[in-house]
Amino acid sequence: GKAQAFVSAGNTGAVMAAALFILGRIEGVERPAITGVLPTRSGRVIVLDMGANVDCKPRQMLQFAQMGSLFAKVFFQVPHPRVALLNIGEEPEKGNELTINTHQLLVAQSDVHFVGNIEGTQIFSGQADVIVCDGFNGNVVLKLSEGVVETILYFLRSGILKSWRAKLGALLLKPVLAELRKKIDYDEFGGAMLLGVNGAVVISHGRAKERAIQSALSLASEMIQGEMVERIHQAVRQNQATTAET
Questions:
Q1: Using an 8 Å Cβ cutoff, are 43 and 127 in contact?
Q2: How far is it, in rounded angstroms, from Cα 109 to Cα 107?
């Protein structure tokens, strides 16, 4: 109780373990989820889980969808967040046992605006506000995205230095390039939230610099002001009451 939030750029597994043992899970939440935000053509998309749970069950994926929807409502003021399930195809019958069964649960859930399956090529398209996946695939998406960003910036720098024409073109395009860097730079958002524990926890990147830590602290503050823990707790209680009635 000495602090309302915890921000760390240390080992993700250590932060996870500390949060679970010290703070504990929100009552009714089976598995906390690492929740990240990625840029899209029309804004941003929330992705969870991004590495906390390698092996998941359908009902846990359903809870990820509920927590992600709440996050979209609180932080991005999206009244009815579009939730999609990451899969190898758009058809309901495609995928493994986990995605097929999760799809069925999401279709039947009234408090989640489920828009169906989404493929890897559509993650950055802006077709969804929340994307649900297991921690294994989510972590691959995260690391792949970071690698693609670094590669794009490398190609840009290398191309600009090749000739004076390229340097002149870069000078003319400086505002556009600055905007591009801002959109794809993970320092802008600061880190990933650990949703589902009894407290505001933000896990920043191990290579985070001053701006990333500042953004992570701001994110933790917004989690407190937005009462994320209380909202998730309330949503889980309501869902349990509805399930009991049916």
A1: no
A2: 6
